[in-house]
Design goal:
Length: 235
């Protein structure tokens, strides 16, 4: 990738209380690009996403979006910098219906999708519009969580294991949605253990171990590096 990164992370450290978990994460994500963070359990992938979103009690280092320093931006203002987060636990409101969930997110930037656009992209959510979150399948919850972020108009989305626990046909559907978002020019950072899924959507892979990035490479090199990947990721 050429030119300045849209999201730039340099030497990012992060702590939970006394526990120093991120040891200098550096990565760059260019506009319209999709990258995937891989690494074994506990490597710090989720913590990296949380640190970028300013959800850790303590972090140090440098994070820039479109050149602007993010380190002083309070957590409730991060979305206004154009970045959204779909956590592994999805964060939808269980007692509210699909349509109510879709009405809550604030528009933070032009280009936030209308409810109609959301239902075009996720026809199954349209069918379930009056169902409460508790009644949705795992796949529907994941789609609702992504849809909520799309309502806001952010251009960068961090997704933590979007395929976890889902059936192959639903995983395929989520892959189609992410490809659609890429076509629209969205910039995506995935944490994903499912390589078959990740290779379809990602442009580059970042290999993480012990709280830092070991190496990164384009998806075209994935096959050649599979042994190395299995060694680091342990699957
Ligand atoms: P996983 O796939 O298991 O979520 P991960 O790569 O996302 O793996 P993290 O969840 O970021 O890893 O965890 C990194 C380290 O931080 C681990 O050692 C974990 O035990 C620790 N950790 C995670 N969350 C907390 C927390 N809330 N308090 C204290 N330590 C935590």
């Amino acid at each position: 990738p050429q030119g300045p990164a849209l999201l730039e992370v340099r030497d990012l450290h992060g702590w939970y209380g006394e526990s120093h978990v991120l040891h200098g994460v550096s990565l760059d994500l260019h506009e319209g690009e999709t990258i995937t963070l891989v690494g074994r359990n506990g490597a710090g992938k989720t913590t990296t996403l949380r640190a970028i979103m300013n959800l850790l009690p303590r972090r140090e280092g440098l994070i820039r979006i479109a050149g602007a320093d993010m380190m002083k931006v309070p957590v409730h203002r991060t979305a206004y910098s154009g970045i959204g987060y779909v956590p592994e636990e999805r964060g939808i409101f269980a007692t509210l219906t699909v349509s109510e969930n879709l009405m809550l997110p604030p528009t933070v930037a032009p280009g936030g999708m209308s409810i109609e656009e959301i239902y075009d992209l996720f026809p199954n959510l349209a069918e379930r519009r009056d169902s409460p979150g508790t009644k949705l399948s795992g796949g529907e919850q994941q789609m609702l969580a992504i849809a909520r972020i799309l309502r806001t108009g952010v251009k960068i989305i961090l997704l933590d294991e979007p395929t976890e626990g889902l059936a192959p046909v639903i995983i395929q559907r989520i892959g189609d949605v992410l490809m659609e978002l890429k076509k629209k020019g969205m910039t995506l950072l995935l944490v994903e253990q499912n390589f078959r899924f990740a290779r379809k959507v990602a442009d580059r892979f970042f290999l993480m171990e012990d709280g830092h990035i070991l190496e990164s490479f384009p998806t075209s090199e994935l096959d050649a590096r599979m042994d190395r990947l299995h060694e680091v990721v342990g699957v």
